[in-house]
TrEMBL record:
Gene3D superfamilies: HUPs. This is DUF218 domain-containing protein. The chain crosses the membrane at residues 27-49. One of its GO terms (cellular component) is plasma membrane. GO terms for biological process: Gram-negative-bacterium-type cell wall biogenesis; peptidoglycan metabolic process. CDD domains: YdcF-like. Pfam families: DUF218. Residues 68-229 form the DUF218 domain. The lineage of its organism: Bacteria, Pseudomonadati, Pseudomonadota, Gammaproteobacteria, Lysobacterales. Keywords: Membrane, Transmembrane, Transmembrane helix. The keyword Transmembrane applies.
Length: 257
C-alpha cells in the first residue's frame, strides 16, 4: 500500500508535468518522496504502529470459572516436504495461547482453547487444524480445544466464534492475536456480542534508519491495512451493510477478577 501510493503519486505528477502544471507536479513528487522516506525510515511507521498496539498486555487480569481462550489464525505455509505448518506470524500467538491455557488450568478453573481459522492460504489444511497440532505438542489436550475451521477473515472469526462460545457458556473470554491486529479484532468480536479481554501474542516496532527499509515498509503496510479495516467496518455499519449487531448478554456473561 505504501509503495502503491508512492507510485500513484509519481504517475499523477508525471501527468501533471506533461500537462505543464509543473508546480503541482513538483509538490506531488516531494510529497511522494517524503511519504516513502518517513515510512521506510521509521517515523511514520512508528506512529502508525504505536496507535494500534498501545494498551494490549501479554497476560490477563484474572480468570473466571469457565474460560474460553480464542486463538486467531495468522496463516499457514506448505513446507518443502509437502506438509502444512503455522506461518511465521502465527508462532507468537500460538505460544501465548499455550501459556495462557497453562495459567488458566493452574487456577483449577475450566479452560478451553478455541482455534479460529479456515484454509485462507489454500494449503489444503485449515489454520484451526494446523494450529491444533502445534498446541497439542505444547501441552494443550485436544479435548480442551474447540476448532472453528470455516473463517476466511477476522469478521468471520468473530461471527463463527459466537455460537461456539454461546454453547460453551464462557464467563471469561480472552482474545489472542498480534498487538497490531487486536484493535480491529476486538471491534469485530464486540459486534457479535463477545466482550473479550485482548492479549497480544507479539509486538512489532519500527526501526529508525537513514535510508528506507523493507521491514518498515512492510509494517507500515500492515498497519494501514488495519486502519482501513476499522474504517471500513464503521462505513459498512453506517450503510447497513454489516449483519446486525448481537447484544452482549446473548453470547456470554462476562465476569472479571
Amino acid at each position: 500500500m505504501i509503495l502503491t501510493l508512492f507510485l500513484v503519486l509519481l504517475l499523477v505528477a508525471a501527468i501533471l508535468g506533461w500537462r505543464r502544471r509543473r508546480r503541482a507536479a513538483s509538490t506531488l513528487v516531494v510529497f511522494a518522496v517524503a511519504w516513502l522516506f518517513f515510512a521506510g525510515c521509521g517515523p511514520l511507521t512508528a506512529f502508525l504502529l504505536g496507535n494500534l498496539q498501545s494498551g494490549f498486555a501479554p497476560d490477563v487480569a484474572g480468570w473466571g470459572q469457565k474460560n474460553a481462550i480464542i486463538l486467531l489464525g495468522a496463516g499457514t505455509v506448505r513446507t518443502g516436504a509437502g506438509g502444512v505448518e503455522p506461518s511465521l506470524y502465527a508462532d507468537g500467538r500460538i505460544l501465548r495461547t499455550a501459556e495462557l491455557y497453562r495459567a488458566c488450568k493452574a487456577t483449577g478453573a475450566d479452560c478451553k482453547v478455541e482455534v479460529s481459522g479456515g484454509d485462507a492460504m489454500r494449503t489444503g489444511l485449515a489454520e484451526a487444524d494446523t494450529y491444533a497440532i502445534t498446541l497439542g505438542r505444547l501441552g494443550v489436550p485436544r479435548g480442551d480445544m474447540m476448532l472453528e475451521a470455516r473463517s476466511m477473515n477476522t469478521f468471520q472469526n468473530a461471527q463463527n466464534s459466537q455460537p461456539l462460545l454461546k454453547a460453551y457458556g464462557a464467563d471469561k473470554v480472552v482474545l489472542v492475536s498480534s498487538a497490531i491486529h487486536l484493535k480491529r479484532a476486538v471491534l469485530y468480536f464486540a459486534h457479535f456480542g463477545i466482550r473479550a479481554e485482548p492479549v497480544r501474542g507479539d509486538y512489532v516496532a519500527a526501526r529508525y534508519d537513514w535510508l528506507p527499509g523493507t521491514e518498515n515498509l512492510f509494517f507500515a503496510d500492515f498497519a494501514l491495512h488495519e486502519y482501513v479495516g476499522v474504517w471500513r467496518y464503521h462505513v459498512y455499519n453506517a450503510l447497513g451493510w454489516n449483519v446486525p449487531r448481537v447484544p452482549e448478554e446473548n453470547v456470554t456473561t462476562q465476569t472479571h477478577s
